[in-house]
Amino acid sequence: MATDKLPLSQILPPLIFGTATFNSQFNKDPYALDTKGLVEQALSHGVRAFDTSPYYGPSEELLGAALSTTFVRKHFPRESYHILTKVGRISGDEFDYSAAWVRKSISRSLERLKTSYLDVVYCHDVEFVTGDEVMEAVRELRRIRDEEGTIKYVGISGYPLEVLCSLAERILRETGEPLDVVMSYAKFTLQNTTLATKGIARLEAARVDVVPNASPLGMGLLRADGVPEGAEGDWHPAPPSLRAAVARAAEFTELHGERLEVLAIRYSLESWLTVGSKVGSMGDPASGVPWQPELNSQLGGQKLGVSVMGVSKASELEKTLMVWRSILDGMENGQETASQAGRWKRAHEWSLNRKKAVLLLAEGVQEDCLAEWIDHAWESPNADYVAKKFTKQTLEPPGSSLTPEASPEPTDRRGRADDIMTSLPVR
């Protein structure tokens, strides 16, 4: 076990840029996204962690290229940000958690991401394989960490909380070492809060250091325009009745002057900062303001719940960071921080009032629109799933119908007013 490094909870930022959107599930042609511009914009606004996976199509390659531009290398040395990736999941129904594949996958990720080390590596979607397979992968990741030094922290990710908790408990019991991190997704949202009510206590008891909450929109479910459809069509597992309830929620929020996705994002990000603080981190938060770093100590110096956000456009990133900035303004020392940074002196008061309004409307959505679907979880894997062992000798995943194109050069967005996404109001 490596002992010469800080716990992950001391250094991981509370806001992580998730790049699952750099994938054909969410975008018909991920190569057409301005991924370099997005990453540069995120870094300049204080984002210091990026989550990816080999399963996310070209995500690792696009992120690696974006982190290797002259601009990024000049202003943001590798040690200033964190890269989180995964092993084990290859395609929708293909997995390989063997030690041999883990080694190959790590080597490939290092090459794609153009880095000499990975800050965090998860076993991806652990519910699709056996517990013994997860144990083999975790042991190999820790061996690589201790003997080769190309990995710093090891964790698991997945959807069913029971599986995540049981595996965290087993890993501690059988190895004597707890997991550094367990990432849960779509389990702390407007529609499902079981990560807080059922997950935290068990994961904390299993001595898991950090529990990031990913997918605050429930894999895109909680949107006024419905679930996202990329090149793979409608892949979302939510049943029709739940989708209908979400559509009613969108109408309800519209009547009260809100977009459902804005409400859902703010509710999740803001609530998890405190609800998830026991399994949170003390890394410096993204300030949300260009070239204006902010320290954890400026927000009270306590652990903050960690969230993973995902965006595809500069306008989406801009709006998300404005919401994030407003949330931080409402925290301890928020008034002083805003004043020192030259922002509105009443930003703290505005943020607290906004929080009350968000919670009130969120309760309305939960009571009047989603009541029968609160804490509903879809099957993962579904009942007819049959795991297939990945037997190909090549490292390349199954082919995509897309023709790769070079990621566009980043766009200079200084002074650009036409890039504002008017359908996502600033809140």
Automatic annotation (TrEMBL):
What cellular-component terms does GO give this entry? cytosol
Q: Does the keyword Oxidoreductase apply?
A: yes
Positions in coiled-coil regions:
none
**What is an example of a GO molecular function annotated in this UniProt entry?**
D-arabinose 1-dehydrogenase [NAD(P)+] activity
Gene3D superfamilies found in the cross-reference section: NADP-dependent oxidoreductase domain (3.20.20.100)
Q: Where is this region: Disordered?
A: 391-427
Comp. bias regions, Basic and acidic residues: 410-419
Which GO BP annotation is one of this protein's? Answer: dehydro-D-arabinono-1,4-lactone biosynthetic process
- Residues forming the NADP-dependent oxidoreductase domain are 14-328
Question: Looking at the record's lineage, which domain of life comes first?
Answer: Eukaryota
Q: Which UniProt keywords apply?
A: Oxidoreductase
Pfam families, per database record: Aldo_ket_red
- Report the protein name in the record: NADP-dependent oxidoreductase domain-containing protein
| Organism annotation | Venturia inaequalis
Q: What is the lineage of its organism?
A: Eukaryota, Fungi, Dikarya, Ascomycota, Pezizomycotina
